[in-house]
Amino acid sequence: MISPRNQAPPLNIGAEELWSVPAGRLLERLETTAVGLDAGRVQERLKANGLNTAAAVKRPPLLLQFLSRFRNPLIIILLIASGLSAATGDIASFVIVFAIVTISMTLDFVQEVRAQNAVEALRRSVAVKATVRRDGSSQSIPIDQLVPGDIVELIAGDMVPADSRLLESRTLFVNEALLTGEPYPAPKQAGDTATGSENAVGASNAVFAGTSVISGTATIVVCRTGNHTALGHLATSLAEKPPDTAFTIGIHRFGMLITRFTVLMVLFVLVVNISFHRPVMESLMFALALAVGLTPELLPMIVTVTLARAAMELGRRKVIVKRLSAIHDLGAMTMLCTDKTGTLTEATIRLVRVIDGFGAETTPAFGYAYLNSRFESGMKSPLDEAILSAHPFDMTGWEKIDEVPFDFERRRVSVLVEHGDQRELIVKGAPEDLLRLSGRYAAADGHEIVLDDATRQTFAATLDSLGAEGFRALGIATRRVERNHATAAITDEADLLFAGFAVFLDPPKATAGAAIQAMAAAGIGVKVLTGDNELVTRHVFAEIGIPVTGVLTGDALSHLSDEALIGQLSRVNLFCRVNPQQKHRVLLALKRMGHVVGFLGDGINDAPALHAADVGISVDGAADVACAAADLILLEHDLSVVREAVVHGRSAVQNVSKYVLMGSSSNFGNMFSMAGAALFLPFLPMLPIQILLNNLLYDVSEIAIPFDRVDEDSIAAPVTWNVSEIERFMLIFGPVSSVFDFLTFSALLHLFGAGEAVFQTGWFIESMTTQILVVFAIRTRHGLFRSRPRGFLVGMAFAAVAVAIALSLLPVGRWFGFVPPPAMFFVYLAAATAAYLALVEVTKMYFYRDPARRTRGYG
Ligand SMILES: Nc1ncnc2c1ncn2[C@@H]1O[C@H](COP(=O)(O)OP(=O)(O)OP(=O)(O)O)[C@@H](O)[C@H]1O
Ligand SMILES: [Mg+2]
To answer: Which reaction is this enzyme known to catalyze (predicted)?
Structure first.
């Protein structure tokens, strides 16, 4: 016999070992080197250590997922009860009950798993990737494929993929807010001894999964992956569950509503039957079948399939959905916050010229800007790219000594450089700040002149006129330092020598104005939150034809209390020079006002707001932190795509609401009449198996609901879930359905003189027909014939009705206790169905008489 090759044990590095052991020893322990692992070793470790994901997000195996459906207490009791009746000889009914239960579960399960798989495949296409050294080269792979021993390169904007030790680092700052709650960037540095390691993630020579790189670069060796990371521990201990959204809460409340009614009805039926001395077993089965009939068991499937379908369609429109339920939030979204670059502008930033404070072109300032952009180690901003691609610049002789990395509070970056025997600090950043920090300026002939108030004002005027013409600008300044000045610090950014302005053009997007107007027409307000200055942004607004209704700058914002901010929010649609925390704050304030808020952004500075938003939207190619925080990824940076996504979100919610309204009205009414009929009939109004069969066919007819068309006007405004509205619907349309049931009772008893079996068959047919066909009335708020359903829905509904009638007429029907009713019954059936639908139509007109109701959703 060949025994399987012994699987290597998982490679585990202790949490302490990670930072306390010298780096060389750690590499030995991990059996790796600076050039990385080879493919064979990676495979071995993937097998032993598993994927690099937190356990909570892993799905259990398919079979378990399937079996877990049977955990439903109703189903268990039903199966036990039918098992008992089998023991007393009624094997046929056990087989049928079992078959019906299994078929409907399988149907449901297959639909749902297929939908989930399709969505998962899309989601993987935007998985966050890491640059890893393997087999002697650098490759980009999804971070769940990382194993201990992998050597990974990090740059600003990257997510740290796993708990790792730093091998090399340059001016590295990371955001550890997720683990420590500390919002300010923490410095990190490669080294054998760690400082600040008193708390688990404090070690200065290690970085941890769930944190992100704010600035600088690093090379790391992965030590602990998946569950073993500090984040993994956190995730499992919090039993990670996505936060409840308005929609999930609504669904839950609907479930509770139905459960309450179900319990009441089952108890009622049991009490009545037992007090009439009917057989206990039969009464129990009857009550249970009723309960099964009432349960909206397809709801999870309908929800998943509508969402998945929307996600697939959005995928074709180049929008990738990472969190499925975000689609509902999109449907309910009332406010969208967005950044400027790429949304309002083309994001094809070009350096047009470099000028001095008086507006004359100057060359030295370009050289400084170029050096600063080249030496800067953070994530290159589009402004840097524009500078670097403007002209070539000869860098020979220039050397970088140190850097003060860019951050969104200071809005500038400094590099300390050396050329020959001179050292200088080159600062580049928000121009108004650089002017403020400068004490002198370089004249055209190279002389240094003191920046007096008058000149300062001239320079500021030059800057303003740039902004008014729509040019973006960065200020450039320098400062000569001593030769022994070895490190750069923020405090060095003072008393600067002003060199000039780098002037950029980022043309406004031609389609942006129309896109914002379309959003407004769809009931969604748009606010722009940018780190850029007011004049430039105002110019962009003017170009795209959108009025600025009010402006708040970051400075002004920092002086407002939360209440004062909320007071201003409805007026202000432009926020300028705001930092990441302020973007976050505005977002929270909007949420507090009751808005469902979306946030669209692509920068490191957008990540906090993306996290907090109801719908976080980012774009392909954005900083990893932004992508990781987002629920939706746009493959094309365009506002009009968001508008389309909103339409899909609203349609999805409306389709789910069709199912819910069906279940809570007609189906509910039928079960209700059944319970009532049990009161005065000498026999059961329908056999338990017949009720289950009824339920199965009804479910099948509803499979098409996620694919149905929705009325234009029902998705014209944000759609929110409203349980009290559903309750009202239930209390009006349920009885309407019962009226016809009782009509059918008396027709069957008196007109057709039906005995037990014929009565049950007749009623089965009538309730199936009305309950299924009413979907055409309930699916729209308009007249039945004014709104065209999708062919699939029509097909499924009529097929289900046909099967129900055929089953009761064909010989197989006898297994279910059916006996063909007289031919005249079908004439009655046609008339009653038509009358029922007509009555529902009239009731609908009454129900939706308030026009506001017609466009607002419940669902
Ligand atoms: N590479 C850089 N070097 C120096 N300063 C920079 C750099 N990138 C950005 N800044 C400064 O920081 C400010 C804010 O950055 P940025 O414009 O990216 O913010 P934002 O909120 O993402 O803007 P947007 O809404 O346009 O996306 C810029 O206006 C500029 O003054
Ligand atoms: Mg940005």
So the answer is: Mg(2+)(out) + ATP + H2O = Mg(2+)(in) + ADP + phosphate + H(+)
